[in-house]
Design brief:
Distance between the termini of chain B: 37 Å
Largest sheet of chain B: 7 strands, mixed
Radius of gyration of chain A: 13 Å
Distance between the termini of chain A: 35 Å
Mean pLDDT of chain B: 93
Shape of chain B: globular
Helix content of chain A: under 10%
Oligomer: heterodimer
Helix content of chain B: under 10%
Radius of gyration of chain B: 13 Å
Number of helices of chain A: 0
Structural class of chain A: mainly beta
Largest interface: A-B, 23 and 29 residues
Strand content of chain A: 35-45%
Number of helices of chain B: 0
Order of helices and strands of chain B: EEEEEEEEEEE
Order of helices and strands of chain A: EEEEEEEEE
Chain lengths: 110, 115
């Protein structure tokens, strides 16, 4: 089972920041937090990942709390094309599989 | 930007037939994966592959499934005798190395329809 909890859906206005929360209270010290998204039935698209420091790339920012029990993905200026299901995943330590949960359906409205 | 490519985009097969799904991972990646997504359900891990052998597999990946890297570029998933419940999107992924600080990059999938 997925080790993360996300809200099932969120809405955001176009041009505004989208802040997607994720709880991972049982994360262990050497597990990374990954974010992916899936648009319609396309393949999951990698967004960003982190261990304990905040991270930023051209797509998004990832804020991880100091205790690492939760994180927030920030899309700074959401566009209609950011409408997708967003998955927060804690990578299994025992192997290389990604365990996808239900994710958050983000809808960006004009 | 390099990407994972999968062929065909849609495969229709009669139940009981063998099917081979093909993937070309990103060229300098060493770990390869297959996932599937039944319509309306979660993405599920099937298998990971490194150094010409399976490194991890899920309970879904039974004797009907096999993977192969037949040459230096392709990575294939074979289903020997397809069942109706094998109908799903199949995604291939690759990463530079396994585990830890190595994001997996996915292809756009093959839609497998079993009749």
């Amino acid at each position: 089972d997925a080790k993360t909890t996300q809200p099932p859906s969120m809405d955001c206005a176009e041009g505004r920041a989208a802040n997607l929360p994720c709880n991972h209270s049982t994360i262990s010290g050497n597990e990374y937090v990954y974010w992916y998204r899936q648009i319609h039935s396309q393949g999951p698209q990698y967004i960003i990942h982190g261990l304990k420091n905040n991270e930023t790339n051209e797509m998004a920012s990832l804020i991880i709390t100091e205790d690492r029990k939760s994180s927030t993905l920030i899309l700074p200026h959401a566009t209609l094309r950011d409408t997708a299901v967003y998955y927060c995943i804690v990578e299994e330590t025992s192997g290389s599989r990604l365990t996808f949960g239900e994710g958050t359906q983000l809808t960006v409205n004009p | 930007e390099p990407e994972v490519t999968q062929t065909p985009s849609h495969q229709v097969t009669q139940m009981g037939q063998e099917v081979i799904l093909r993937c070309v991972p990103i060229s300098n990646h060493l770990y390869f994966y297959w996932y599937r997504q039944i319509l309306g359900q979660k993405v599920e891990f099937l298998v990971s592959f490194y150094n010409n052998e399976i490194s991890e597999k899920s309970e879904i990946f039974d004797d009907q499934f096999s993977v192969e890297r037949p040459d230096g570029s392709n990575f294939t998933l074979k289903i020997r005798s397809t069942k109706l419940e094998d109908s799903a999107m199949y995604f291939c992924a690759s990463s530079p190395y396994g585990g830890g600080n190595q994001p997996q990059h996915f292809g756009d999938g093959t839609r497998l329809s079993i009749l």
